[in-house]
Write a structure and sequence with these properties.
alpha/beta, 13 strands, seven-stranded parallel beta sheet, 8 helices, Rossmann fold, 36% helix, two-stranded antiparallel ribbon, 305 residues
Length: 305
Amino acid sequence: MYVRAVDCPGLKNVQSLAGGDTGSIVDENDSAHALVSCERMGDRATQISGSNDANSRHESVEYSSRLNFMTSLSGKVAFVTGGSRGIGLATARALASSGASVAITGTDQGHIDSAVAALGKDVVGIRADVRQYADVERALAQTVAKFGGLDILINNAGVGVFRPVADMAVEEWHRIIDTNLSGVFYCCHAALPHLKTRGGGWIINISSLASKNAFVNGAAYCASKSALNAFSEALMQEVRYDGVRVAYVLPGSVNTGFGGLSNTKSDWALMPDDVAEVIVDLIAHPARSLPSRVEIRPAQPPRKS
């Protein structure tokens, strides 16, 4: 399988957190992870949100899957939340390039339209907010009506707001939890009947290395991602005998200019395409196997001083 990715911003830097650094934190936009300075966020009470979706542009990257002999997704239907930018866009591109029909969701119609134009045929864009169960049901119903079923659900939409617990508004807490956790529940709840109708399929949730490395000003975000991990583990055990395989991916530092911040990681960080390749390779595994958790981080991040 060959995948060409253009316009693929993505993740915030969680690699430093995984190594125990205290000077940087992670976010995941509709779902993009991006590095932000804790000091900057503390001083400015910065709020970061969006969709794995993101803002920067990267030149085309072409790669081939190490499982390319197993990766034809012709006839499969995938649903990617937060699919108009970042990891979501890279994943939608990888799935479409592997032969799948793909529906992407997002909350910004302009970004959705741009993504669909770039991805080409067999891709449909749907404006939907995963915090609203009615939106999720409608988007999945449109997908099934358009393509005839559902085989793959990628829960990628997410949001991050970073400030001390004492300073965080109750509405901000709900926004994070409702997007990063409840939104995943809504999508899984609405998608499972369609997956079971097809005899099984895949649910892949995009978490973060921040889920296991808590940091100052990240209480809500880290809690949402830790809960997502537990949710994924429980769901995996519930539906495995229905032929539905559940996995979750924990990315580390991914190259991005998300949030308008300067990009200083281009020489060593992951790209959104790297995360997308992990997702496609998971789906390529034979039915007898279930790789349920994957951590992916840069091979050679900067050494700690």
